[in-house]
Amino acid sequence: MRYTRSMKVATVAFAGALVLSACSESGDGGGSEDAASPAAIDCQTGTLSGEGSSFQKNAITEWIKLYQQQCPGATINYNATGSGAGVKQFLAGQVDWAGSDSALKPEEAQTATGRCNGNDAWNLPMVSGAIGVAFNVEGVDGLVLTPDVVAKIFLGQITTWDDPAITALNEGVTLPGEKITVFYRADESGTTDNFTKYLNAAAPTVWTAPPGKAWPAGAAGEGKPQNAGILDAVKNNANSISYLDYSDVLAGGVTAADIDNGGGPVELTPENASTAIAQATNTGEGNNIILKFDYTTPEGYPIVAVAYEIACSAGGPAAQPLLKSFLTYTASPEGQSELSRIGYVPLPESVESDVAAAVAALQ
Question: pTM value?
Answer without folding.
Answer: 0.77
